[in-house]
Amino acid sequence: MNIKRCLTLTRAGIIESLQFRLGALVVVAGNLLYLVVIYHLWQAIFASVGTETVNGMTFTDTLIYLVLATALFNFMEMYVVWEMGHAIQTGEITIQLLKPMKYRSYMFWSYSGTAVTQFFFTFLPTFIIVAIVTNGAIPLGLNLLFFVISVMLAISINYSIDFLTGTICLYTESTWGINIMKQVIVLLMSGATIPLAFFPEPLKTIVNYLPFQSIYNAPLSVLLDGNPEPAKLLTTLGIQLFWCVVMNIASRLFWKLSLKRITVNGG
Amino acid sequence: MSNIIEIKNITKEFKVLNRREGLKGSLKDLFSRDYKIVRAVDNISMNIEQGEIVGYLGPNGAGKSTTIKMMTGILEPTSGEILVNDYVPYKNRTRNAQNIGVVFGQRTQLWWALPLVESFKILKDIYGVSDKDYNDMIELYQSLVDIEPLLHKPVRQMSLGQRTLSDILAAFLHNPKIVFLDEPTIGLDVSMKSKIRTLIHALNKEKNTTVILTTHDMGDVDALCRRIVIIDKGKMLYDNDIEHLKGFFGYYRTLKIRVGGDLKQTAEKIRAQLPEFSVSADDEWISILVDEAKSKVMDVLSQLQKSYKIRDMQLEEISTEEVIKKIYEEGVK
């Protein structure tokens, strides 16, 4: 019963996102441009250092990592903050609150459709192309299964952070700045723009204690490690699970408190 | 008949920041803790029965939307009790949502990019409507309005009228006990308005759905509501049948006569003759607002006929619109 509700929203999201063909093309074009830029940027970085490996990563390693991070970003980013901010400003949130579902899950499932579409149209093709072009640099084994688990946890953490940030919009009534700030923090701290291996030691330690690295760094390191030590793999997934639970609880609590504010003082 | 909505002495207050003027004032406002309390709804009570259509009226900013938001559970009353379908709405918002449908003026709950039928299917699953109920409902819709051409049209391509119609159908789809319609006919042309009124009326009849309607269009009220509730500045002004409304300020009718000669002068004379009524004159007619509690229109007419040669006459009933306007402007004595 409940599952049916959720899946119908996913289905709607898929159909909806397929309506905007031009938008999808623009995203692909933008990504290609971005990839060209990071290709040349990192080539320059490696050339200036002059050694084959920097911080334990070769140029190819770095590039594979960053290309996959971009693809992962396209598929996991849900733009929930935008949507919530918009709904709050226009008052549309009142209609969404009157659905016989919890708002948090209503939003999640409404967006899941886009994620599914993005998975098949951006992530999967990118992954296949990278796998073929690099000719075996991505190990194809049991790590794929762990990768799927890791991505699911990452999606949940990412959504919780988004939802938490979106809830802040209830107080500020402005979206743009908050969203940009969130995006920069998440992308940098998660290792989506620069692999964590390149971070200076103290920063690396700090980042390891934050939830963000569980979003991009964790799934990518699971994917790119063909023969992980079981202990290391379990630690990675365990930390993800920990953050998944913590962020879920935090975002739910914060929402509950904030909702009280809406019902007491109006939208 | 049982009450589906019970409201007892509800009051809703908002805390509003006192804004100051100018750049300096705006800067000060950043740190200001200078709040004032605004009472949007002030001690309102009413009971609404299953199957009623209630017109909920009031000037802009009277507190209508706030009351409706409290009934739907989006707002929590500052004090007082409210029961909708035996639930306290703000405590059971999600459960309450299952039993209500809403159409909020210009907003839509439909999926913008999808054909209408897809939106219906999504709503069907969200509200857990069975296949049979869903098909019956679509069949009913088809018998009431011609929805076939709308079903396969994406919502973003619809005209405002078509979209409003679709939104109303969507609100009734899960056969809720109560439907809240907030200005459903705003911005629509005459034929669409009448189509929507017929539809609301038919759905109310067919499903015995309680309908709470806010509007500024007295045509909606005359066509649909037997009972109206009027509020202003958060206070209840009137809650009764629409027939009683007309007698609310006495039974007024306007008698218009045309006589020879200078109308303005004649009007002066009539005014002296009938001091208890208000008399006015324009280029064609002399209008006398007759309070039927004091004397009958026919008596006034025959009295006037003795002194003047009346060439033509008209009798106008006071419209709901005029009564309401009077209530908004003068309040209740």
Provide keyphrases for this structure.
heterodimer, A: 267 residues, mainly alpha, two-stranded antiparallel ribbon, 1% strand, globular, B: 333 residues, alpha/beta, Rossmann fold, Alpha-Beta Plaits, six-stranded mixed beta sheet, 13 helices
* Percent range of helical residues of chain A: over 70%
CATH top level of the largest domain in chain B is Alpha Beta
How many discrete domains of chain B?
2
Uncertain parts of chain B: none
**Straight-line distance between termini of chain A:** 31 Å
Question: What percent strand of chain B?
Answer: 25-35%
Q: Spatial order of the strands in the main sheet of chain B?
A: 5-6-7-3-8-9
Task: Tell me how many strands of chain B there are.
Answer: 13
Main sheet attributes: strand count, strand direction, barrel closure of chain B: 6 strands, mixed
Assembly type: heterodimer
Mean pLDDT of chain A, as a whole number? 87
Question: Could you tell me the mean pLDDT of chain B?
Answer: 86
> Per CATH, what is the topology of the largest domain in chain B?
Rossmann fold
Low-confidence runs of at least 5 consecutive residues of chain A: none
Total number of helices of chain A? 11
Largest Cβ-defined interface: A-B, 29 and 32 residues
Number of strands of chain A: 2
- In angstroms, what is the radius of gyration of chain B? 25 Å
Beta-strand content of chain A = under 5%
CATH homologous superfamily identity of the largest domain in chain B: P-loop containing nucleotide triphosphate hydrolases
Shape of chain A: globular
